[in-house]
Amino acid sequence: MAEDKKEQKKVKELEKKMDSFLSDYLLKGSKNVDGKIQTPRYETGILLLDALTGGGFPKGHFVSIGAEPGVGKTTVIVDACGHIARGCPERDIYYIDIEGGATPELISSMGYLDVLNTEDNPTGNFYLIKGMQTIQEIAKLLKMAKELDNTSIIVIDSDTMVADQIALDKDDLGTSNEAIGANARMWSKNANTMLATVRNSEMCVVLVHQARTKFKGGGFVTTVESAGGNAAKHLSSVDMWGSRAGWIGPDGDLINKRAEAVGCLINLTTTKNRLTTPFKRVQIPIYFGKGVDNSWAYGGWLQSHGETDPVTGEFIPYLEVKGGGYNTFYLPFAYGEKVRGSQAVRDFIKENEEAITEFIKNHGSLEAEAASEDEIIEDIVGVKLSEE
């Protein structure tokens, strides 16, 4: 009897040790939502980006976004970071700007000066980091952020420009035989350590890829390739690729003349998504110096959703667009409201954004559409630069 109690005590002690040992490795934070496990995320405030990723930037994961230069990657990520910084003031965001595309002027013009950490605003939780460029410095930042447990997002813009301190110490500027493939080897050596640091944390690390231009098939084409070989790609649970779909004119319509554009419309396609369905696509409008305009997403949803008239059986969309330029809203708080022109539609949506947001939440949600084979080829395989 005494031996049985002794054995039971030993088992309980082992179980306690096992629970303690596994506490850092077991799945944390995930919730059962309508019978499905959902990874906790940071909502980006960009409605279609959240729809594309499955709810926002996932905690404890890497996310990547790639495109050719000038498409709008940095603008999208800065806008998302500004929204997250404002929504999670208790957590810090570190934007490692290696390329120089994210500037205080850009962040200020997009309306996020209140969260940007500066000498005049030392309590801001959006840190714009300049001068950090080596993989060793980035790995150290990840480790310290994990230990402090006070970070939401770390952006590396771009991973193509990350250098190896070992090579810098050797004064190897990329001209030696040893330097060939050095970037890929660097990411391969550090990927597992970085992944282990981020996993089971409250952080999401965003990698920004630059497209490489190759001479292929008789002309230069943009291909979905980034520095770091396959290692950098394998880090990401969600991988997105973008291309420009058109230019936005002063009246809010798509135009052909770049010189008259005040913004651009970009395609974003998920080439990989371990957390939800991949190969989804959205179109996100970006206004130069201002960021993403959510009114486009709302307008599309209101046009495609509506209610059936109980008397006539006719389907009435929440936003009816007619060829004459007059558009009619059929919403509870604006039934029969008419506005003229596409820009007037977006202005009306912005003025009533809070009410429309609540209305959409109660009647469904914004969703990313499945990308067709042609769209996948356009966004993922590449487009001829001459077509841009």
What does this protein look like?
- With 388 residues, this protein is an alpha+beta fold.
- It has 2 domains: 35-293 and 367-387, Rossmann fold, CATH 3.40.50.300; 306-362, no CATH class.
- 34% of the residues lie in helices and 29% in strands.
- It is built from 12 helices and 22 strands.
- It has helices at residues 2-22, 47-53, 73-87, 104-109, 135-148, 165-169, 182-198, 229-235, 295-304, 342-351, 353-362, 373-381; strands spanning 31-33, 36-38, 41-42, 57-58, 61-67, 92-97, 126-129, 151-157, 204-210, 212-216, 219-223, 236-248, 254-255, 263-273, 280-287, 291-292, 306-308, 315-317, 319-321, 326-331, 334-340, 369-370.
- The strands form 6 sheets. Strands 5, 6, 7, 8, 9, 12, 13, 14, 15, 16 and 22 form an 11-stranded mixed β-sheet that branches.
- Helix 4 (104-109) links the parallel strand 6 and strand 7.
- Helix 5 (135-148) runs parallel beside helix 7, helix 7 runs parallel beside helix 8 (229-235) and helix 9 (295-304) packs across helix 10 (342-351).
- The protein is globular and about 85 Å long.
- 35% of the residues are buried.
Query: Given the structure, what is the number of helices?
Result: 12
Distance between the termini: 83 Å
Percent helix? 25-40%
Overall residue-averaged pLDDT value: 84
The number of domains: 2
How would you concisely characterize the structure shown here?
The chain has 388 residues and is of the alpha+beta class. The chain is built from twelve helices and 22 strands.
